[in-house]
Amino acid sequence: MVDAPGAVNDNDAAQDFANRLCIEDGMTVQELGWSDDCDPSIPEAVEDRIGEALLDEDTDELCDVILLWWHDDDGDLVDGLVDALRNLDSEGCIWLLTPGAGKEGTVPPGEISESAQLAGLVQTKSDRFGGFQGSCLVARGNKR
């Protein structure tokens, strides 16, 4: 079956998530903070791209990318970011995924920026992934 011109199929949308997250084949990716209200298409797209399951919070491997799901009631964001840094490779990034504006659990952009700075990180870009806002955070000096 051929898609109608301009139609977006689910596989294309999922692969678009992986592209926008800058995920490449062979990367090591960890997922932290998953809960039932998170969007499963995001980690599924990443797993499809890297060809293996995402690592969980029990891993001690260094990771190229960490997907950190966060809601405003999850506690102190600075602590969450510092904990996530434990397994992050020096050239890696944390994608902080928070509910989009107007949704329950939204984290204000100012809080993300301030928490990132306090954790020794800077935000390099942001993007919308379905109902979630993504903020790419890297260590100061990392040009990723």
TrEMBL record:
<dbReference type="InterPro" id="IPR021412">
    <property type="entry name" value="DUF3052"/>
</dbReference>
<protein>
    <submittedName>
        <fullName>DUF3052 domain-containing protein</fullName>
    </submittedName>
</protein>
<dbReference type="Pfam" id="PF11253">
    <property type="entry name" value="DUF3052"/>
</dbReference>
